[in-house]
Amino acid sequence: MEEIKVKNLKNKEEQFGELLKVIATLRVGCPWDKVQTTDSMRTMTIEEVYELCDAIILKDTNGIKEELGDVLMHLVFYAHMAEEKGNFDIADVIKHVCNKLKYRHPHIYGDVKVRGTEDVLKNWEQLKLQEQGRKKKVLQGVPASLPALIKATRIQQKAHGVGFDWKNKEDVWAKVKEEISEFEAEVNKNNQLEMEEEMGDLFFTMVNSARLYGINPEDALEKCNQKFISRFSYIENAAKRNGRLINELSLEEMDELWNEKKELENKNLL
User: Fold this and answer.
1) What is residue 5's DSSP assignment?
2) What CATH number is given to the structural domain containing 157?
3) 71 and 151 both lie in a single domain
4) Contact call for residues 183 and 198 (beta carbons, < 8 A)
5) What is the tally of structural domains in the chain?
6) How much of the chain exceeds pLDDT 90, in percent?
7) Do 235 and 204 belong together in one domain?
8) Residue 262 falls within a domain, yes or no?
9) Contacting residues for 208 by C-beta, under 8 A, at least 6 apart
10) Contact between 204 and 152 (Cβ < 8 Å)
11) Which domain holds residue 39?
12) What is the pLDDT of residues 52-95, one digit of tens each?
């Protein structure tokens, strides 16, 4: 494969070098930066990643640019703290990820042939298992602290990567119906613990069905969240315009306003 040229490489290298200098300067001169540790930065990093996710959902280009900068700053900060302890530096981090990407893309940096995205994903998971010195089991690669919905998705993707999956995606619907029946049975028994377990099974199966049909369940649910917020806010604003609080509306009035908002949304889609 011919070498790919990176646009404005010199400027990018200069700006990255400037960031390294800024972090090094702050670490020496700023009282706040001096006392930070990987533990103290952890929750702030999580917050920055969520802020980036919000900007992506809103398709806010300037917001994405700003939040990417904040996340990048955190990455450089972690590497700088590690360098202070003599553990590794940012060059080691970059070298490691470059080597890993090349190793896991043998269809680009080797002679492996792939037919599409599906083959790439399967190769990725299999290569992870074959990496020298790797002792983790397949599902140990899923971070324990991931939110449950994202974790379920990653678990199923990894299982798929080693061939543990439905032969035909349509077969998943029989499992969905089975899980609904099992949940309803526990509801009829009013068994709270079993109801919770069966609801978990149903959620997990629905995540599986989403994956099989190429839908990211996290994205799908977030779009639903935003739609609900928009419609609920419409009801709340309508009540306010009439000098009332939303809890002063009857359920019938709220339903009418909800459907009114749905009709407006449908007209906007036409």
Assistant:
1) P
2) 1.10.287.1080
3) no
4) yes
5) 3
6) 68
7) no
8) yes
9) 156, 166, 172, 175
10) yes
11) 9-103
12) 988 998 899 999 999 999 999 999 999 999 999 999 999 999 99
DSSP letters along 171-186, please?
A: GHHHHHHHHHHHHHHH
Length of the chain: 270
Whether pTM > 0.70 for this model: the answer is no
Token pair 């809103």 in the structure block, residue: 58
Of residues 162, 153, 167, the one with CA closest to residue 214: 153
Closest CA to 253 of 270, 269, 234, 227: 234
Torsion sign (Cα): 120, 125, 126, 131: positive
Separation of alpha carbons 82 and 84, rounded Å: 5
Domain boundary among 83, 103, 123: 103
Spatial distance between the Cα atoms of 257 and 20, rounded to a whole number of angstroms: 54
Q: Phi and psi for 165 in degrees, rounded to 5?
A: -160, 170
Write the DSSP symbol of residue 7.
T
Q: Which pLDDT tens digit goes with each residue over 42-53? A: 989 999 999 998
Burial class of 29 by CB neighbour count within 10 A (0 to 12, 13 to 18, 19+): exposed
The tokens 């969520």 sit on which residue? 50
Q: Which helix (H) or strand (E) holds 95?
A: helix 90-103
Angle, vertex CA 51, rays to CA 47 and CA 55, nearest 5: 170
